[in-house]
Structures are given as structure tokens and as C-alpha cells.
Specification:
The complex is a heterodimer of chains A (204) and B (223). By secondary structure, chain A is of the alpha+beta class. Chain A has seven helices and seven strands, in the order H-H-E-H-E-H-E-E-E-E-H-E-H-H. Chain A has a single domain, classed as CO dehydrogenase flavoprotein, C-terminal domain (Enolase-like, domain 1), CATH 3.30.390. In chain A, strands 1, 2, 3, 4, 5, 6 and 7 form a seven-stranded antiparallel beta sheet that branches. The longest helix of chain A is centred in the last third of the chain and has 25 residues. About 3% of the residues of chain A have low confidence. With 223 residues, chain B is mainly alpha-helical. Chain B has seven helices and two strands, in the order αααββαααα. In chain B, helix 6 runs antiparallel to helix 7. The chains are: A alpha+beta (204), B mainly alpha (223). Chains A and B meet through helix 1, helix 2, helix 3, strand 2 and strand 3 of A and strand 1, strand 2, helix 4 and helix 5 of B.
């Protein structure tokens, strides 16, 4: 059998193979991949931000624990925030210098943001109110967008707000078509609620 | 050596060379992939589990967590910064945040913050990226090697089994990584076994195809 005959006999599977090869080799749109949003631009170092979110002179420990079902239920009923009760959270816990009652907690988290990431931090006091909140950094491509939409570094207008305030502000931002603020405030709400629920479990 | 007449027999020399070269390059590609896996991760189920498992907690912390339900350690803001590349400084909340990006790998150097001492878990986005790159390549391998297998004179049942095992193994090779990351590290054996099965399928097909291309003479050409 010569090659021409072989090709003729197998033209259908060969055509399918060629078509499949072309489809598979089509370039996937580059923007769909992370890594095209530029390097991370830090506005504040996480360490500095977290330190400012916790009371001075407190005894600070780093804890890792999952939010128990009771904690998640408390967050839902008391704060109106639905939280997963299976993720393990890492956060800083501040107690009085003698290791007594809980004075506050803080955490920093990196979230997905468009085709990059955004780093956020928030602290809460013993009552579950936000002490300070901050945008720690974002990929270079989105720096201007984030600065315009919500701000960079410490977000001064969030000092002292409640979790419910964060929810309301997030909803309002979405209604105003400011998705950047809506997303960031929504993440901060979840973080603050998580900290409040974890702290509540320790205080209860 | 004689065999039932097949489509791979009696090919012109140029086709023989092409098919042979393709199989050799493919074999080299497979071995290179295996070498890369061995160097970057390891080939044993334990190594796969260690690399792809959820690393929110270190092994020691897992023990502590199992015993007391939490891990707690003293923290000082004045502690020296960890070496570059240490990803322990930040929590990754995929459940709330969705998928995360490769940029996270560049976060080393920050002073230790709320994040724990465990290593950095591979994220959904990274696993999705790894999967799509590999699966697209796998589909091409499946189509080409499977087609060559189908053109041999092996028994039809054997060809069906070979192609099916190859397809299943290619899928499970990647699927196993997702199971290790998000279900249980006990599934690491799946990736190790399926990766080996892929190699066996490629080897069997390659040897059979080369046999028919070079050593098997078609019956009509014997006289």
C-alpha cells in the first residue's frame, strides 16, 4: 500500500485528528490567565497593618482553627452573615497582657480580584466592631482602579463600623455600580464576621 | 515475520520514519514529564500527597488540631521576617474568595502576619491552569497514540481496552490531583498509578506499532 492509498483509506479519521489538533492548539485568551496583572504592589506591609489593628500592649497569639457550626450560626443570627463552618482560619488574637479576656482579633487575607489578587486586612475589638481595615496591596494593573473605587492602605472611614455597616456599605456600592468597593467591603464584612464569631466562641 | 494485513504495514519509508520519529519524541516527552515530576514533586504517592494536599496546617499542626481543635502560638510583631518565598504570612480564603492566582507565589519576604506556619496550598486557579494545559496536551496524545493503536492488527478487544485505559489514566492522572487537594490526600495513589498506566499504554502501543511498521510484512507482499 502506498501512502496515497493509505491516506485515502484513512481520510476521515485523519481529518478529525487534524481538526482536533487545530482546535486544541488555538491560543487560549491570555487575559484568562493570572500572571498578566503585573506584580503585587504593596500599600502597607501586613505586619504593620495588623499591629495597628490590635490594642497596644496586648498579649498576641496566632491561632488556627475552624469556625464551628455554633459560631457560624451565631454569625448568621447576630450579624446576618453566612459563613462556611469548615474552613480553617488563621488569625491573630489579642488578650490582655496577663492572658485574660479577649481584646480583639485581626487577620489578613488574599482574595481573587479580576485577573489578579487583592490583599486585605481587618481587625475587630472585643465587641466585634472594626478597629481598622486596610487594602494591603493589589496587582499593578488594578492599582488605579482600587484607589479610585475604595482606596489604598488604611480605609479610615471604616474605623469603628459594625459588621452590619459593612454589609450595608457593600450593598450600596454594588447599587452604585462600584463593584470594586462592593467586592472589597463584602470581603471585609466576611473577615470581620469571621473574627467576631471566632472571638465570640472564645469569650462565651 | 508475518501477521494479518494491517494498515501500518507496507507503508512507504517516509511514513515509517515519520511514525517512528513521532513515537520516539513522544516517548522522550513522557520520560521528560516523568523526570520533571520526579524532580519537582516526587513519584511516590506520599510525595504527591505532600505536594498537593491542603497545606494550611503543617504535619505537626494537624496533630495538634486533631488533639485540641485549634493551634495557638505566641506571636510577636518584632519577629524577624521569614526568608523570601515563605508563603506562611497570609491566609488564603478560597471558599470565600473563589480562585486565587499565581501572583501569590511572589509574596515571600513579608513579615509574618496572621498566616500560619504551614506551607502554601496549591490554589484552585493554579490547579485549573495545570489541568487545562495538561488535559489539552493529553487529548492530543490520546488521539494520536490511540489512532495508531487502532491501525494495528491487534485484536479489537485489546485495542478497545488499550485506548480506554489510556483515556481513563490520562483523566485520572489530573483528577487525582484535585482529589488530593480538596478531598483527601489518600487519593495520591490514583495519580501515581494512572501515571504509570499511561506509560505502560504508551510503551505497549509504541512497541506494537514499531513492530508492525518495521518487522511485520504484509501477506500480499510475501510472494
Amino acid at each position: 500500500m502506498n501512502a496515497t492509498t493509505w491516506l485515502r483509506r484513512n481520510r476521515r479519521p485523519l481529518m478529525v485528528a487534524a481538526l482536533m489538533a487545530v482546535v486544541m492548539l488555538l491560543p487560549v485568551p491570555a487575559p484568562a490567565h493570572k500572571g498578566h496583572a503585573g506584580p503585587m504592589v504593596d500599600f502597607i506591609q501586613a505586619n504593620d497593618a495588623l499591629k495597628a489593628m490590635l490594642p497596644d500592649g496586648a498579649h498576641v497569639t496566632r491561632r488556627k482553627e475552624a469556625l464551628q457550626a455554633a459560631g457560624a450560626a451565631w454569625a448568621k443570627s447576630s450579624l446576618g452573615v453566612a459563613l462556611d463552618d469548615d474552613d480553617i482560619h488563621t488569625y491573630l488574637l489579642a488578650r490582655s497582657a496577663d492572658g485574660g479576656p479577649v481584646l480583639g482579633a485581626a487577620m489578613d487575607v488574599e482574595f481573587d480580584y479580576e485577573h489578579g489578587d487583592i490583599k486585605l486586612a481587618v481587625g475587630v475589638d472585643a465587641a466585634g466592631h472594626v478597629t481598622r481595615a486596610a487594602v494591603l496591596g493589589v496587582n499593578e494593573k488594578y492599582v488605579d482602579e482600587v484607589k479610585t473605587g475604595i482606596g489604598a492602605g488604611f480605609l479610615a472611614d471604616l474605623d469603628g463600623v459594625t459588621v452590619q455597616d459593612l454589609s450595608a456599605r457593600s450593598d450600596a456600592a454594588y447599587k452604585a455600580r462600584n463593584n470594586t468597593a462592593g467586592d472589597v467591603l463584602g470581603h471585609l464584612r466576611d473577615m470581620a464576621a469571621t473574627l467576631a464569631a471566632l472571638s465570640h466562641g472564645l469569650s462565651a | 515475520m508475518d501477521a494479518p494485513r494491517g494498515r501500518l504495514q507496507g507503508l512507504s519509508p517516509s511514513w515509517r520514519v515519520l511514525i517512528t520519529a513521532f513515537l520516539l519524541v513522544l516517548g522522550a516527552g513522557y520520560l521528560s514529564g516523568a523526570l520533571n515530576a520526579a524532580l519537582a514533586v516526587g513519584l511516590t504517592p506520599a510525595a504527591v500527597a505532600d505536594h498537593y494536599r491542603d497545606q494550611t496546617l503543617s504535619r505537626a499542626e494537624e496533630q495538634t488540631m486533631a488533639e485540641q481543635g485549634f493551634v495557638e502560638e505566641e506571636f510577636s510583631f518584632d519577629a524577624p521576617a521569614p526568608p523570601a518565598g515563605d508563603m506562611s504570612g497570609h491566609e488564603h480564603m478560597e471558599g470565600m474568595a473563589g480562585m486565587e492566582g499565581m501572583e501569590g507565589m511572589e509574596m515571600g519576604g513579608a513579615a509574618p502576619a496572621a498566616g500560619g506556619h504551614g506551607g502554601r496550598s496549591i490554589t484552585r486557579q493554579e490547579l485549573a491552569q495545570l489541568s487545562h494545559v495538561h488535559l489539552l496536551g493529553f487529548s492530543f496524545i490520546l488521539l494520536t497514540v490511540g489512532a495508531l493503536a487502532c491501525l494495528t492488527t491487534m485484536a479489537e478487544g485489546l485495542k478497545v481496552a488499550l485506548v480506554a485505559v489510556l483515556a481513563l489514566s490520562l483523566g485520572l492522572d489530573i483528577g487525582g490531583l484535585w482529589l488530593v487537594r480538596f478531598v483527601s490526600e489518600g487519593y495520591a495513589w490514583l495519580t501515581a498509578v494512572s501515571g504509570t498506566a499511561v506509560g505502560v499504554c504508551l510503551l505497549v502501543t509504541t512497541l506494537r506499532v514499531l513492530f508492525e511498521v518495521w518487522l511485520c510484512r504484509p501477506k500480499e507482499m510475501r510472494t
